[in-house]
Amino acid sequence: MTRSGFVALAGRPNVGKSTLINALVGEKVAIVSDRPQTTRRAIRGVRSSGDCQMVLVDLPGVQRPRDALTERMAQTVRQELDGCDAALLVLNGEQGVGPGDRFIAQALLGASAAATIAVNKVDRLTRAETIEVLEQAVALEVAEDVFPISARTGVGVEALTEHLVAAMPEGPFMFEDGATSDQPRAVLLAELVREAVIRRTFHELPHAVEVVVEEVEWVGGHLNDLARVRALIWVESESQKGILIGARGRMIKAIGVAARRELERELGAQVHLDLSVRVRRDWRGDEGLLDRLGM
Asked: How many domains are there within the chain?
């Protein structure tokens, strides 16, 4: 008999949920950065091993809604928690337990699925610091099982995985063998471009940027030859556009080089990347646009 189910990863922004998802799946399905609000959609990574398939849902970081976009992100978190088979609260071991973690823990108490806690980034802590933050996690009283892990190095991830696998109910696999995510390819490619933008405009404008891949064209008809990818980067003001392009186009060129490398890894082919930057004021408050973006 096979088992399968959904595991929802909840936590404050920048606790390492995306890095953990990638580690559990075994390949990159969620972009990673040190900036909050990097994850905007509920991204599903699929881990199939033996007779068990886990669908790991990387939820947006829980935060106070400030606009239509962040309100939708909060709604996504609530919906995914209601439909999951297991919930995993991820804490940042370096920062310890704070008010945001307590708020999320209270939300998990109202969820139908049993919760587990993963204290991440313990590779950066001393033994005494690790013990202290584990005690803080236990004091949340939201889960009986607490795992110290490092999603970056893999420490503790195997034990956590075995625990989550044991929590999956009996049922058929929901994704075909070999599947690692439910994201449309155009969305994943756009996210890889956005990751390159965020990493190079770290302080200036990460929240104001969105990327849409408008076209992927295979040249020569063979999937392993050359792909032409046309992507549009949206910002909210002319000054942001200037930052993104940079003096003599140096910033957009650097972004293009880094993004193309990731796209080539994903597509397994050479990529010609065409990037355009457009101003779309207050796009984060445009309900119709957010609908079209699937947010």
From this structure: 2
C-alpha 202/C-alpha 180 separation (Å) is 29
Residue type, 271: V
* Residue 112 CB neighbours (<10 A): 10
Overall pTM surpassing 0.90 (yes/no): no
Asked if 33 and 161 sit in the same domain, the reply is yes
What's at 151, amino acid-wise? A
Q: Could you tell me if 134 and 194 lie in one domain? A: no
Within a 10 A sphere around the Cβ of 37, how many other Cβ atoms? 19
Write out the residue range of the structural domain in which residue 283 sits. 185-292
Residue pLDDT, tens place only, 133-155 = 999 999 999 999 999 999 999 99
